[in-house]
């Protein structure tokens, strides 16, 4: 181990081949943490996952075999490390298994050695979503259930609220059902002036890893609110128009009509509409000030050169 990395916590990432998990593994390796990644026997013939795991191994990660169907194997895995980060799936149109983490919480409790656990959050703060709409509230309710188990077991924690991942919410100028910028027309939510927070996924990885050995983030919620990325949808669209040199035709949809669009949609679509409503009409990411048990990542770690949205959008030109 390099001298400057001595004394750094050993970190296990559970869900490391996933969408945000792989960024967190990458950040952990690049910040010099001894990085362990869970390898589940259930991946079977999924060669993409296996190759990603082997790629992590080449970069210095240690692969640890364990299964959610074998509690003792999870206990043995978490015993190897100081910090556990879970990036368990939680997006309905991909896969949603937030409550599986209750097994991981149980394993951490039994192992008794873990100094910090970061459960799979990385989005809207579920503690502020008691009023959320059905059916999308399931995301927040389940994340709160996991929090309750963590706190009941007295496991030291950090919750990371990462706001809107840029590739999901900024690249498409916050349009649903596409991941690419619209070519001619853009739909604005209400007046399009509600402030939203867009965060590059690699920055989510970087900030998350920064928190794990930091006493200032112990038993706290950390919000990632890079100041220049706090933008309204209109401001985001303007950035794209400046980059592309083309004005988009703007139409607007009222909150009522937007909610009505849920009808006839499949479950994942309805969950999505609910989340968009809270973000773009209600302003749930920005309509509160941080409290005492809460910190803001870009203030804690001013050395991180986070990606601004005009820079982020360039690749979509
Ligand atoms: N803020 C935002 O804009 C935003 C956007 C997307 C997601 N998120 C949040 O980020 C978190 C992670 O989501 P994601 O999209 O990155 O997840 P994902 O890629 O769909 O899945 C992550 C990992 O979950 C594990 N997993 C899934 N099903 C499993 C099962 N049955 N048993 C054991 N492990 C299983 C897998 O781990 P292996 O590596 O072991 O296979 C998988 O790679 C969620 O909390 C989600 O709500 C936030």
From TrEMBL:
Q: Which UniProt keywords apply?
A: NADP, Oxidoreductase
Give the NmrA-like domain ranges: 8-313
Gene Ontology biological-process entries: lignan biosynthetic process
Translocase as UniProt keyword: no
Keyword Isomerase on this protein? Answer: no
Q: Give the Gene Ontology MF terms in alphabetical order.
A: pinoresinol reductase activity
Against Pfam families, the record matches this protein to: NmrA
Family recorded in the similarity comment:
Belongs to the NmrA-type oxidoreductase family. Isoflavone reductase subfamily.
Q: What is this protein called?
A: Isoflavone reductase homolog
